[in-house]
Amino acid sequence: MKERAGGGVQNILIVGVGGQGVLLASEILAEAALRSGFEVKKSEVHGMAQRGGVVSSHVRFGGSVFSPLIKRGEADVILAFEEAEALRWLPFLRPKGFLIVNRQRISSPLVTLGLAHYPEDIASVLSSLGDHYIGVDAFPLALEMGDPRLVNTIMLGAVSSLPSIPLTSWRRTLQKKLPERLRHLNQLAFERGRQLIGMQMNKASVIRAPRASSVLV
Amino acid sequence: MNHPLGLQPRIIGSIGEGRLKVLLSGNEAVARGAYEAGVRVAAGYPGTPSTEILESIVEYPEIYAEWSPNEKVAFDVAAGGSMAGARSLAAMKHVGVNVAADSLMTFSYTGVRGGFVLVSADDPGLHSSQNEQDNRYYAKLAQVPMLEPADSQEAKDYTRFGLNLSERFDTPVLLRLTTRISHSKGPVSLGRRKEHPPGGFLKEPSKFVMVPGYARARHPIVLARLDRLRRLAERSRLNRIEWGDREVGIVAAGISYQYAKEIIPSASFLKLGISYPLPPKLLSDFANQVKRVLVVEELEPFLEEELRGLGIRVEGKNLFPRVGELNPDLVEEGLRKAGILGRGRPKEKGEKPEPMFPRSPVLCPGCPHMGVMQALKELKVTVTGDIGCYTLAALPPMQTLDTCIAMGSSIGNALGIEKALQGSSSRKKVAAVIGDSTFIHGGIPALLDVAYNKGQVMVIIVDNRTTAMTGGQNHPGTGITLRGEQTKRLDLVRLCRALGIERVREVDPYDLEEARAILREEIDSPFPSVVITNRPCVLLKRERKGAAYSVDEMVCTGCRLCLQLGCPALVWEEAAREAGTVRIEATCNACGLCAQICRKKAIRSEERA
Question: Are residues B93 and B228 both part of a single domain?
Answer without folding.
Answer: yes
